[in-house]
Amino acid sequence: MSTFGKLFRVTTYGESHCPSVGAIIDGCPPGLELDVSDIQVQLSRRRPGQSNLTTPRNEKDLVHLQSGTEHGVTLGTPIGLLVKNEDQRPHDYSETDLYPRPSHADYTYLEKYGVKASSGGGRSSARETIGRVAAGAIAEKYLKAVYGIEIVAFVSSVGKIHLPALLSPPSLTPSDDNEDNDNVDDAISEEFRSLLTTITRDEVDKHPTRCPHSQTAEKMTQRIIRAKDASDSIGGTVTCVIRNVPAGLGEPVFDKFEAELAHAMLSIPATKAFEIGSGFRGTEVPGSKHNDAFIRRPDGSLGTKTNWSGGVQGGITNGEAIYFRIGFKSPATISQAQATAQYDGTPGTLAARGRHDPCVVPRAVPIVESMAAIVVMDQLLQQEARKAAASRLPPIKTLPPTMVMPKGV
Ligand SMILES: Cc1cc2nc3c(=O)[nH]c(=O)nc-3n(C[C@H](O)[C@H](O)[C@H](O)COP(=O)(O)O)c2cc1C
């Protein structure tokens, strides 16, 4: 369906070529200072036509606040956000009247609903993600102001070009040891940990690919241009880190923090994979090396020496940085001729016209950040509600000490 979240509820609407797209956000706390510019920043990072690496569809994606604020302050009532679709060219898609685009959603939407938007991807188009990005920007404003939470995503690979191993999660550096050997690095590399601790959006945006390593970014550019020149496309991965999230978020057992995160991320169009912390690579590491030993932090709280867990244990945040990676496929719409079949099964050749992204990951970065912000916000409101309700109960003095956190921690 089109609504995500329980207490911070985001409903998006709109298709690729209808008059507007947008969102209704219910559950935003009242009293938050909110201006259009807070939202526009992320929408402008998502918009098409930013460089020669993205679709040339020319949209400014200016957001119009419809409700839920007055004098720059949220009222606690539903916030309505609207962005006009301006550069509509439905005729670009006429050949897809006959052909479902291979690996796009034309066939499945038609099978499901029995009717589909007459042009473009309709609801399956990435235009839909505008509502998510706008909602995520509002969540982020609250999270930053109240908790100092920071969310930064970046492109970690395009095709086979990855950030250098030292800057990459262990899952990107396959072991060349023999199959029976337990000799693996026993921690995330210092360089990668440091990148996760310090990376900023300004650094990410220095290069149009949104890869924070300039030499790799240049190689990625050439790879995307090669795909574009061949009327083809290429996929990639986005890595995201969320810093300063308090311990205790996540709603076991079905709404565990990483389960909600995976749900949010895999709802983004073109996603094919999700991993958190050590991910698939972690399966190769024995427990003796994979466990994140506890340490006392300078402020007296418990922290972990390593962070293979990616900041989540038992579906609950542990206060360490949360980091995860998402795989995006090579976009389906390519103007290269493809042997395929029409809706009625007649074999034929499709060379899709229209304007398309040769690689979606540079534009996916703010979408990933926004979905992450929505998840954190929703889980935070749930935990705050629980804590507030519990705090009104009289203190229990009879519990055995093993049932409560020792004093001083
Ligand atoms: C930022 C972004 C831009 C996209 N641009 C295109 C595009 O230009 N052409 C295309 O075929 N798919 C594009 N997609 C992906 C499609 O929307 C998606 O592949 C399609 O809806 C089918 O869904 P699925 O890949 O999740 O199965 C884009 C996705 C994102 C996140």
UniProtKB/TrEMBL annotation:
<dbReference type="InterPro" id="IPR000453">
    <property type="entry name" value="Chorismate_synth"/>
</dbReference>
<dbReference type="GO" id="GO:0008652">
    <property type="term" value="P:amino acid biosynthetic process"/>
</dbReference>
<comment type="similarity">
    <text>Belongs to the chorismate synthase family.</text>
</comment>
<keyword id="KW-0456">Lyase</keyword>
<comment type="subunit">
    <text>Homotetramer.</text>
</comment>
<dbReference type="GO" id="GO:0004107">
    <property type="term" value="F:chorismate synthase activity"/>
</dbReference>
<keyword id="KW-0028">Amino-acid biosynthesis</keyword>
<protein>
    <recommendedName>
        <fullName>Chorismate synthase</fullName>
        <ecNumber>4.2.3.5</ecNumber>
    </recommendedName>
</protein>
<dbReference type="GO" id="GO:0005829">
    <property type="term" value="C:cytosol"/>
</dbReference>
<dbReference type="Pfam" id="PF01264">
    <property type="entry name" value="Chorismate_synt"/>
</dbReference>
<dbReference type="GO" id="GO:0009423">
    <property type="term" value="P:chorismate biosynthetic process"/>
</dbReference>
<comment type="pathway">
    <text>Metabolic intermediate biosynthesis; chorismate biosynthesis; chorismate from D-erythrose 4-phosphate and phosphoenolpyruvate: step 7/7.</text>
</comment>
<keyword id="KW-0057">Aromatic amino acid biosynthesis</keyword>
<dbReference type="GO" id="GO:0009073">
    <property type="term" value="P:aromatic amino acid family biosynthetic process"/>
</dbReference>
<dbReference type="GO" id="GO:0010181">
    <property type="term" value="F:FMN binding"/>
</dbReference>
<dbReference type="InterPro" id="IPR020541">
    <property type="entry name" value="Chorismate_synthase_CS"/>
</dbReference>
<dbReference type="InterPro" id="IPR035904">
    <property type="entry name" value="Chorismate_synth_AroC_sf"/>
</dbReference>
